[in-house]
Write a sequence for this structure.
């Protein structure tokens, strides 16, 4: 579906795009997200419980890398604000987001400087 939409509504070509894919080992998926992972695994085991890996890549973008973490671990710091929820459901949420963000910003800065 995404491909069809983008073919009718292409992204501006003068803007560089970057993709970072969450592609965890099964033991890096939080308890609350495992059912989504299993359902998507019927289509492709290479998923983060919310998206299959290739749906995380912007067409024409620079693939920055693959992160061994589930969808929420990268995007939602639940463990910092809701420790009870983390202990029961969001069991794989600790992730060095700040270090990753800094590395991404440096990569993008260097890439844009080189253009």
């Amino acid at each position: 579906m995404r491909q069809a939409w983008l073919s009718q509504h292409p992204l501006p070509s003068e803007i560089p795009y970057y993709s970072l894919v969450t592609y965890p080992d099964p033991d890096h998926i939080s308890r609350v997200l495992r059912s989504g992972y299993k359902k998507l695994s019927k289509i492709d085991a290479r998923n983060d419980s919310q998206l299959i890996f290739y749906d995380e890549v912007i067409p024409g973008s620079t693939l920055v890398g693959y992160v061994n973490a589930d969808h929420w671990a990268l995007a939602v710091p639940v463990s910092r604000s809701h420790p009870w929820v983390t202990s029961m459901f969001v069991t794989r949420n600790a992730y060095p987001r700040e270090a990753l963000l800094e590395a991404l910003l440096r990569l993008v800065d260097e890439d844009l400087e080189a253009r």
